[in-house]
Specification:
elongated, mainly alpha, 4 helices, 0% strand
Length: 167
């Protein structure tokens, strides 16, 4: 059973590294790079291509994190019945876990809104008229969604460390 636990944790950590690392790479390298003047003519197409690839990889990582996270809890003895035990909710572990669940839920909602709504629409408008007020507004909104998600990702990593290393 220990080997299974370690394998699932390794997959969980790799998925987290891919998700957080990919987000940081986009924010710190890709987006500033494609904003350079020489890339402006192809920026909407390039952003669309990179965004589609990142979206696929990001959702694969998030799905893996949710599934492996559930398995890890089960392997650590946290069953569905545990959540109905009032004594469980008096522990620091439960409070930290609830905070992590809330942050993950918010990430899933914001990611869906960004990936399938605001981000797509912002890029469509940027192709037509990048200087339009609506294109600029949606681009700023998409950027804020991504920034909040990155901040939440870092918070989730911190909460994960607290869960594993003790509350």
């Amino acid at each position: 059973m220990r080997e299974l636990y370690l394998l699932v944790v390794a997959v969980h950590v790799l998925a987290a590294a891919g998700w957080v690392g990919g987000s940081l790479f986009l924010a710190l390298a890709v987006i500033p790079g494609i904003r350079q003047p020489q890339f402006r003519p192809i920026m909407p197409d390039l952003l669309d291509f990179i965004g589609r690839r990142a979206r696929t990889l990001g959702w694969a990582a998030l799905g893996t994190l949710v599934v492996t996270g559930i398995i890890i809890l089960l392997l650590r003895g946290v069953s569905p019945a545990t959540f109905f035990d009032p004594a469980f909710w008096r522990t620091g572990f439960a409070h930290t876990l609830a905070s992590k669940f809330a942050a993950v839920g918010l990430v899933l909602v914001l990611t869906a809104l960004h990936d399938f709504g605001v981000g797509v629409r912002a890029n469509e408008l940027a192709r037509k008229d990048p200087t339009s007020a609506e294109a600029r507004r949606l681009r700023r909104l998409a950027i804020w969604f991504a920034r909040v998600n990155l901040g939440l990702a870092i918070i989730i990593v911190g909460l994960s460390v607290v869960l594993v290393r003790g509350v």
